[in-house]
Design brief:
alpha/beta, Aspartate Aminotransferase, domain 2, binds pyridoxal-5'-phosphate, O-phospho-L-serine:2-oxoglutarate aminotransferase activity, Pser_aminoTfrase
C-alpha cells in the first residue's frame, strides 16, 4: 500500500495515526467484539468516546464552562440557515461580513431565513471586486450596526484563500464565526466568540459533522418556536445525543484530537502550520514571474494557498506532473481555477517540502 500526498481542500488528509488507530480498532473496539459503529449511542462504550472527544476539545482549545461544545449534523452549510433561524428575532437585524464564496452563501441563506424569522440581514462589509475576493476588510471598513442580533464572519475563505489573521473585534454585538477551514490550526482565544462552528472535514475529522462552540447565554437567546431538532438548545440539553449522532465520525474526531494532544497541542501545530505556509508562499514569491498569488499579502491564508501559473495549459501540466510524484488535490476550486494547496493540520512539513521542491523545479523547466 502506498499513501499519496494529499492537498485536498475538504474532505482532506487525516493524520495517519488517527486512521491506523481506527483500523486497529475497527472489528473489535475496546474488547467489545464489535466496531464502535455497531454500538448503541446510548451505551457506555460509545458514550466514553463521545465524552472523551468533548473533553479533549475543551482541553486542547481551552474552552471554559460558559461554553457548550456541540456536535451537530447537516454540515456548515446547514448552519448558514439554522443560525439565523435561531438567533435572528422577528424585527431584528443581523450583520454579515463577506470576503469570499462561503460568506456569500451564509448571507444568502440568512436572507432566505428572514422570510421565516421576520428579521432582516445587512452586509456590514464586503471586499468583492470584479466578482473576485483578494482580501479581508479592514476594521474601519466594517459598518457595524450596534443593534445587530449578531455579526457573522468567515475566518478563512477556503476557495479564495483569504484569511483573517486578526478577527474583527468583538463588542456588545455577539460574534458568530464560520471557522470550518481554520479551526484548531493555531492557539486561539475563543472567549470573544458567542458562536463558532466548523465542519470537521477540513482540520479535525471526516465529513458529516460540525463542531459548535457556543456561549450558554447565547444559546438561551435562541427562538423556542422552532422544531426542536433545529434548536441548538436541544443539542446542548442532550449532550449532542438528542437523536443518533454520526458515532463513527465523532470517534474519528476523538482520534484526531488525541493525535493533536500527543503531538504537543495547538502551539506545536501552529508552529508547523506557519512553517508550511511560509515555505509555499516563499516558493511563490521567489518565482514571482511564474507563480502569482492573487491574494493580498496581509490576507494570505495559511490553510489554503491559492496561486496561478502563466497559462491554464501550464496549470494542467503542473497538476499532471505533481500527480506523477503522488501529489493530489492541487486543482483550484472550479469557480476560481488555478492551483490550491490546502495545508491543514494533517499535511506534514515533509509533504510541503516535496511540493516546494517541485514548484521550484517546474518553474525552472517551464
Ligand atoms: C467547507 C466549508 C463549508 C461547507 O461545509 P459543508 O460541510 O460542505 O456544509 C462552509 N464554510 C467553509 C468556510 C468551508 O470551508
Amino acid at each position: 500500500m502506498e499513501r499519496v500526498i494529499n492537498f485536498n481542500a475538504g474532505p482532506a488528509a487525516l493524520p495517519l495515526a488517527a486512521l491506523e488507530r481506527a483500523r486497529d480498532e475497527l472489528l473489535d473496539f475496546a474488547g467489545t467484539g464489535m466496531s464502535v459503529m455497531e454500538h448503541s449511542h446510548r451505551g457506555k462504550d460509545y458514550e466514553r468516546v463521545h465524552d472523551e472527544a468533548i473533553a479533549l476539545l475543551r482541553e486542547i482549545a481551552g474552552i471554559g464552562d460558559d461554553t457548550e461544545v456541540l456536535f451537530v449534523q447537516g454540515g456548515a452549510t446547514q448552519q448558514f440557515a439554522q443560525i439565523p433561524l435561531n438567533f435572528l428575532p422577528d424585527g431584528g437585524s443581523a450583520d454579515y461580513i463577506v470576503h469570499g464564496a462561503w460568506g456569500e452563501k451564509a448571507l444568502s441563506e440568512a436572507q432566505a431565513a428572514t422570510k421565516w424569522s421576520g428579521g432582516k440581514v445587512r452586509v456590514a462589509a464586503t471586499t468583492v471586486h470584479d466578482k473576485q475576493y483578494t482580501r479581508v476588510p479592514a476594521e474601519a471598513e466594517i459598518a457595524r450596526d450596534p443593534q445587530a442580533a449578531y455579526l457573522h464572519v468567515t475566518s478563512n475563505e477556503t476557495i479564495h484563500g483569504v484569511q483573517f489573521h486578526e478577527l474583527p473585534k468583538a463588542d456588545a454585538v455577539p460574534l458568530v464565526c464560520d471557522m470550518s477551514s481554520d479551526f484548531l490550526w493555531r492557539k486561539t482565544d475563543f472567549s470573544p466568540f458567542s458562536f463558532v462552528y466548523a465542519g470537521a472535514q477540513k482540520n479535525v475529522g471526516p465529513s458529516g459533522i460540525v463542531i459548535v462552540l457556543a456561549k450558554k447565554d447565547f444559546i438561551a437567546r435562541g427562538r423556542k418556536d422552532l422544531p426542536k431538532i433545529f434548536q441548538y438548545r436541544t443539542v446542548a440539553e442532550n449532550n449532542s445525543l438528542y437523536n443518533t449522532p454520526p458515532t463513527f465520525a465523532i470517534y474519528l474526531i476523538r482520534n484526531v484530537l488525541d493525535w493533536i494532544k500527543k503531538g504537543g497541542g495547538l502551539a506545536r501545530i501552529e508552529e508547523q502550520n506557519r512553517q508550511k505556509a511560509a515555505l509555499i508562499y516563499g516558493a511563490i514569491d521567489a518565482n514571482a514571474s511564474f507563480y502569482v498569488s492573487p491574494v493580498e499579502k496581509a490576507s494570505r491564508s495559511t490553510m489554503n494557498v491559492v496561486f496561478r501559473l502563466p497559462s491554464e495549459e501550464l496549470e494542467a501540466r503542473f497538476l499532471a506532473e505533481a500527480k506523477k510524484l503522488k501529489m493530489v488535490g492541487l486543482k483550484g476550486h472550479r469557480s476560481v481555477g488555478g492551483i490550491r494547496a490546502s495545508l491543514y493540520n494533517a499535511v506534514s512539513l515533509e509533504w510541503t517540502k516535496t511540493l516546494v521542491d517541485f514548484m521550484r523545479d517546474f518553474a525552472k523547466k517551464a
